Predict the structure.
Amino acid sequence: MLGCIATATGPANAPPGSGDSGGYGGNMDFNENAEGTTIYLPVSNPGALLYVGDGHALQGDGELNGNALETSMDVEFTVDVLPGKRIGGRRIETPTDLIAMGLAGSVDDALKEATSNMASWLEQDYKLTPTEIAQFLGVASEYHISEVADRNAGVVLKIAKSKLSTLTPPHQNYGK
């Protein structure tokens, strides 16, 4: 898996350190960022200016002490910039799940960010109302601690695509 995946911060911002994370992605260290995964990141610059790194052969949930089984990697990936698509944070799609990521100074704040990010995703793409979102998240959410070793803690909210299959199909499928 790749620990760092990000787009460049806005032109007025200083480049972040390699251990930092934020709305642009960064050092997310989430062990499901692996082969076959699609990652959606906000874009602040023309062309997005993607960067990747921090190869891990293996890492448990949370990267508790800042160490994983680090390795060099040969990576192949494709990049698409989706004009007009706005997202509120880092989003991940695996073959089986939709995943919203929260990265913040505390686990509590990261959990709130992940929940808000997923709620926005369900509202935008599945046209759910706030009441429907609350009901759906109450029965379909699965939370994981993705990282605690860096300045920002990470929490992900996963929803199995099988649970989404009962909802109206999304109006926009991120260009797929």
Observations:
- The domain at 2-164 is CATH 3.10.28.20 (Endonuclease I-creI).
- The chain has a mean pLDDT of 86.
- The helical segments are 107-126, 130-140, 161-164.
